[in-house]
Amino acid sequence: MKRLRVLALMHEHLVPPASIEGLSEQEINPFRMEYDVLRALRSLGHDIVELGVGDELMPIRRAIEEHAPDVCFNLLTHFFDVGAYHAHVVSHLELLRVPYTGCNPRGLMLAGDKGLSKKILSYHRIRVPKFAVFRLGRAVRTPKKLRFPLFVKSVSEEASTGISQASVVRDEEALRQRVEFVHGNVGTDAIAEEYIEGRELNVSVLGNDRLSAFPVCELTFDNLPDGSEPILTSRIKWDLKYQKKVGVHSVAPTDLAAAKLEQIARMAKRVYRALGLTGYARLDLRLGTDGQVFVIEVNPNPDLCESEDFAASAGQAGIGYDRLIQRIINLGARYQPAWKGR
Are 194 and 296 in contact (CB under 8 A)? Predict the structure, then answer.
């Protein structure tokens, strides 16, 4: 395997320390992905330069000019604390003509807008919940086409931002309050979609042109409080003690027929292609009580922690973590942006 010069781009407040000895699991959790990826890159023998990125693009350009990396390993999830601006950072990498890992700018833009992506998937006859987008600064009116209960969240932010049990609303007043919460506290437009009663699934996809869909995972909850819905709230995602309290597990569903699993894999690849994704992505799905599968969200460049769903499902497919990181690098190096044809 060829040793590469890799410029690892990450948020400046998530650059991991040289050693995590003595740190608690909760203290490590915010930068766990960065730590895991850097460890794998070093284990693979690559020459690594770490760059903590703040609110300026110039440091990225300087690092590229100074180190002439073979590839940038992109671990950024936003810019100016705005999720939608992540695509512009990747556009900057393309304009600098340097290969990078993960999804291309157009795919990030399309998938990053939950309303727009659902319109595209509906056009391709891929099942999504009925939904409506509520723009900042506009009055909240309940569309007649939607049926309660509804699930309300940010139209563009990821990582369960702004999601709690109150995100599932059952009447117009609760809808108004939750949309206003998203507008005021998350600072983005809100989307409300019909809440699909059923099971929470996800499926991970790797590739540019030739795609691999990894085994389906299911999110289960052992000890949710009475009356709670089985959803991944911000508290569950980021509070490790609470995770353990409610008994959150990501497991391989053993009761789904092979035909259903194959249907989900085919659908995942259709979604990936419909949104023009490259690199790697995770699709969040709901399996309704009637057996129908709905696409809830599409997440390009998902969490690469060794213990998270993307890496875990790759492991079920026989791809160990270090090998997965190398495959992501290879895909980034092989991706054909417009500038390579000039």
Answer: no
- Domains of the chain from N-terminus onward: 5-101 (3.40.50.20), 128-194 (3.30.1490), 197-333 (3.30.470.20)
Give CA–CA dist 92/320, Å, rounded. 31
d(CA 286, CA 196): 7
The DSSP annotation for 147-194 comes to -SSEEEEESS--TTTT--GGGEE-SHHHHHHHHHHIIIII-S-EEEEE
| Tens-place pLDDT, residues 252-291 | 898 999 999 999 999 999 999 999 999 999 999 999 999 9
Residue 171, exposed/middle/buried by CB under 10 A (0-12, 13-18, 19+)? Answer: exposed
What is the pTM for the complete model shown?
0.93
- pLDDT digit string, tens, across residues 205-240: 999 999 999 999 999 888 888 888 888 888 888 888
Arithmetic mean of pLDDT, 247-254:
87
Q: Are 37 and 8 in contact (CB under 8 A)?
A: yes
Examine the pLDDT at 342 and tell me if it is beyond 80: no
